[in-house]
């Protein structure tokens, strides 16, 4: 895929602000297009799409992912805001029966109301914002995301997929969703190559966490745990679920009595919340 200089000033694949690292590429728009067939195939296969699926290609560029997504038979929304890329997408997919090219800004384009998947190589600088848009919050607000396979900056992927997250927001994401790095996507897999590697991040909602009560309880525990990560997890559970139940809940969840709240893996908190409500942990 030849490098192409878009006409707009789109800040596409720039490093997420939290990392302070910036691609050193000469491409002043910072747009890095996927050119690795392995990475593209890995994303599309992981998504396991079929004719009933609705999939969003967020930041579709020239259609590198849009084309293999369309071949699965899924309905594809290719969302892009760069006029040059949009014209190219229209030329390629304007007559395609299951592709709709959407001119829109990823920060505010309306997301579908029905369950949808995302397969996309998203702009680095929108990574946090897009996860916030896609992943549901403790009150069930957010989108109808069923699954996502994303190419994001390696460091950001490591941060959000840590077993023991360091902040409340990533702990919530890790508790409510399985966030797994499937593979490293080397800088050379893009043209032009950015200065940092990327990752294929697989995002799937964890089963058994759809109810409002369990989500609220889970969030309350995480909030208490991250208010003071050095306190024992037992204190957190006692605070939220009651002192008398704390021992039983910890035992059922297989957590050591003395473990620090900040050291408990995010997915274990999901099990704790389910135990606290008398739900089975699987
Ligand atoms: C990393 S490139 C990926 C392009 C293509 N999907 C690929 O894999 O080669 C990110 C794309 O997002 C687009 N983009 C950046 N910011 C955007 C925004 N706010 N709204 C819509 N598209 C945006 C860029 O124009 C660019 O095409």
From TrEMBL:
InterPro entries: KsgA/Erm, rRNA_Ade_Mease_Trfase_CS, rRNA_Ade_methylase_Trfase_N, SAM-dependent_MTases_sf. Its EC number is 2.1.1.184. SUPFAM superfamilies: S-adenosyl-L-methionine-dependent methyltransferases. Residues 1-29 are annotated as: Disordered. Pfam families: RrnaAD (PF00398). Keywords: Methyltransferase, RNA-binding, S-adenosyl-L-methionine, Transferase. GO terms for molecular function: 23S rRNA (adenine(2085)-N(6))-dimethyltransferase activity; RNA binding; rRNA (adenine-N6,N6-)-dimethyltransferase activity. Residues 13-23 have a biased composition (Basic and acidic residues). CDD domains: AdoMet_MTases. Residues 1-12 have a biased composition (Low complexity). It is an enzyme of class 2 (transferase). S-adenosyl-L-methionine binds at residues 32, 34, 59, 80, 105, 121. Residues 39-207 form the Ribosomal RNA adenine methylase transferase N-terminal domain. It comes from the Bacteria. Belongs to the class I-like SAM-binding methyltransferase superfamily. rRNA adenine N(6)-methyltransferase family. This is 23S rRNA (Adenine-N6)-dimethyltransferase. It comes from Actinopolymorpha cephalotaxi.
């Amino acid at each position: 895929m030849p490098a192409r200089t878009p006409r707009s000033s789109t800040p596409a694949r720039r490093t997420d602000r939290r990392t302070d690292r910036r691609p050193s590429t000469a491409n002043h728009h910072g747009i890095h297009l996927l050119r690795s067939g392995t990475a593209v195939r890995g994303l599309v296969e992981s998504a396991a799409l079929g004719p009933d699926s609705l999939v969003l290609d967020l930041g579709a560029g020239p259609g590198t992912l849009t084309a293999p997504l369309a071949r699965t038979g899924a309905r594809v929304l290719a969302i892009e805001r760069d006029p040059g890329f949009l014209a190219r997408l229209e030329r390629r997919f304007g007559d395609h029966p299951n592709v709709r090219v959407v001119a829109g800004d990823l920060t505010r384009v309306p997301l579908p109301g029905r369950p949808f998947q995302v397969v996309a190589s998203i702009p680095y600088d929108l990574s946090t914002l897009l996860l916030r848009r896609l992943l549901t919050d403790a009150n069930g607000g957010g989108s109808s995301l069923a699954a996502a396979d994303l190419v994001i900056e390696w460091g950001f992927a490591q941060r959000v997929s840590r077993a023991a997250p360091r902040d409340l927001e990533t702990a919530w994401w890790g508790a409510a969703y399985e966030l797994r790095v499937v593979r490293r996507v080397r800088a050379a897999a893009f043209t032009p190559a950015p200065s940092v590697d990327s990752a294929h991040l697989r995002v799937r909602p964890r089963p058994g966490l759809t109810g409002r009560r369990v989500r609220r309880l889970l969030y309350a525990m995480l909030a208490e745990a991250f208010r003071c990560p050095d306190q024992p997890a037992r204190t957190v559970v006692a605070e939220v679920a009651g002192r008398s139940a704390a021992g039983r809940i910890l035992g059922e969840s297989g957590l050591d009595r003395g473990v620090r709240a900040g050291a408990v893996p995010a997915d274990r908190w999901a099990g704790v919340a389910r135990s606290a409500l008398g739900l089975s942990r699987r």
